[in-house]
Amino acid sequence: MIFKIALKNFLRQGMRAFLNVLVTALTMVAVVFNLSLYNGFLDQAISNMVSTDVAGGHYRTPEFDLLSPTEWEDQTFKPSDILSSLPPSDKAEVLLLQGQIFPNRRLFPVQLRGMEMNQTLLDLPFSKLEEWDGPIDDVIPIIIGKQMAAKSHLKMGDYIVMRWRDRFGAVDALDAHVVDVVPMINVRLDEGVVWMRLDHLRKITHRENEASWVAVKNFQGAIAHMDFQAPEILLKDILDMIKNDRRFATIIWIILIFLAGISVFNTQYLNIFKRQREIGTLMAFGMPPARIVRLFTVEGSLAAISAVGVALFLGTIIFTWFQSVGLDISHLSESNIPIRENIFLRINPVEVVLTAVIIVAIMIIVAWAPVRRISKLDATQALRGRAIT
Amino acid sequence: MMKNFLRGCLVSAFLLTLIGFLLLPQPGQTEDAKVHRLLVAVDNNMWATTKHIDGRLIIDNGRRVRELAMESWMEGVTRSYSVYKSPARERGTKMLKLDRKLWMYTPQTDRKILIAGHMLRQSMMGSDLSYEDMMEDEKLSESYTGTIDGEEELDGVKVLVITLKARRKSKTYQILKIWADPVRTVVLKEEAYAKSGKLLKTIEFKEFRLIGKRLFPKRMIFRDMLKNNTKTTYMFDEIEFGIKIPKKYFSLRVLKR
Known about the structure:
The complex is a heterodimer.
Chain A: H1 2-12, H2 15-54, E1 58-60, H3 81-84, E2 91-101, E3 108-115, H4 127-131, E4 139-145, H5 146-152, E5 159-165, E6 171-182, E7 193-197, H6 198-205, E8 213-216, E9 227-229, H7 231-234, H8 236-274, H9 276-284, H10 289-325, H11 349-368, H12 379-384
Parallel strand pairs in A: 3-7, 4-6
Antiparallel strand pairs in A: 1-8, 1-9, 2-3, 2-5, 2-8, 5-6
Helix pairs in contact in A: 1-10, 2-8, 2-10, 2-11, 8-10, 8-11, 10-11
Chain B: H1 2-23, H2 27-46, E1 50-60, E2 65-75, E3 79-86, E4 94-98, E5 101-106, E6 111-115, H3 131-135, H4 140-143, E7 144-154, E8 157-166, E9 175-181, E10 186-193, E11 199-211, E12 214-224, E13 231-241
Antiparallel strand pairs in B: 1-2, 1-13, 2-3, 3-4, 4-5, 5-6, 7-8, 8-9, 9-10, 10-11, 11-12, 12-13
């Protein structure tokens, strides 16, 4: 009976009820959208990094640090039999050294990355390097990413001078031929990176069979004098970044929920102020104050419950549209975020249910809080409309 | 007895002839020795146990010219100390080289920075010289062996063109080509090549003058041939050889305001 009365009262509120429902529904949609966007962002970044660089982890020397380029040359190693005997689908040897190119005769420091050509573990578009069958006595083939091409003003077919140091420290230089400019989904493998065939890089630097790391599909057990960097370690910075972003996003979610809560709270407060006579009448007819509180609370909570339905409707439309276009994050290409393509939502059902439950619970609390005063009202004063001033 | 004496004389004569024949200079050896002698003479001109230079680095990057005034004290190939005197931005910057380590001190930060290992290969103060180029002051005669390519005339002087190959694989420039004046025993021009044969740097030695018993250039012009239109001129305004350098100059304690 209380529910019926509450529903009638709720519907009678008209525009006020509609606005409450809409605000609460939009809050739910916004929070779920935000959560799903972060999920999609994280999935995409991890997927890109795993497929192009991280794989199932790296074997490196314990002292190797990607952020210390001046030490790279001292941290190469000859992969052990365990690693070198793995099939091409299970490992990729990479050699990383410092170098310089001179586009338009201007110095441009680069990373020289040598990649095995027969590996299939990592998904990198290096077919043009693989096709090269000429000698490398005068010209050496290289591939660069689109971002690198834009920054260095290079294009496919260009010739540039490339300089490096060999294993002994002697300086050497050759003309490099840009055989392809490729789109890199992982921007970390694009900016400032010159890709070469591993055999070429090893030959010109006299580093036979040496590598800076070996990416593997699966952990191969502990290897003497080697460190295994699991994907969680290699992806730590991106995971930390998303975690940090989520922390900041929580503040926005709290503000949104607070605003929706204020809206319901305000409506409830206005209700008991405007409907004092109604409350007094119900008391006069013998309805216990606790029941009246319950009636008003249900009435207020109906906004949250209806919002779930409206959010479901609005969310379906918005999310369906969004999944068809995605979010263009090309403006982030200058940053170090390993994503190039549009990102899409990954909706986690648990997060959706949890969000809805939390918001509904908060709305019920804010619907109940202002109407608690009813239990203390004097019926005669309420009938006169003077119980709350 | 006479017979034995004669036999002994014959054997001795034969051995002496053989030794003499072996000691005769072969065609290749003559050239090597000639080049080596020239390189030693060049080193005697250019290289000293201790040096004091009051000079300037004029860095022209093709768009802008900067001039840095500096004073340096050098001891052999292992120790050197430099203080920058101008411009205002660089005044008080100090560099101390001890063996294969180089410390840099900047008064703005009041800190010592160690430039070691591969960082030595970076460009020094935006010039055409790397820290390593600046530090590598080894004797040519000890680091390279050479062959004469021919004779040329350079700036009106008859010079020998000599290709030098590094004795050690770790030498930065494995191939050098020098234009050396055999009369004055000085180098007028030097080209540094990559192992592949690509020309990387050139150095021109200009305005030789007599300092004591040495002929030393007044300026050296460095050009990075991979860069466009850049050059760095090292002006030796004052230079002294064989001086006594205070010990404190080669101590880390000197790196302070």
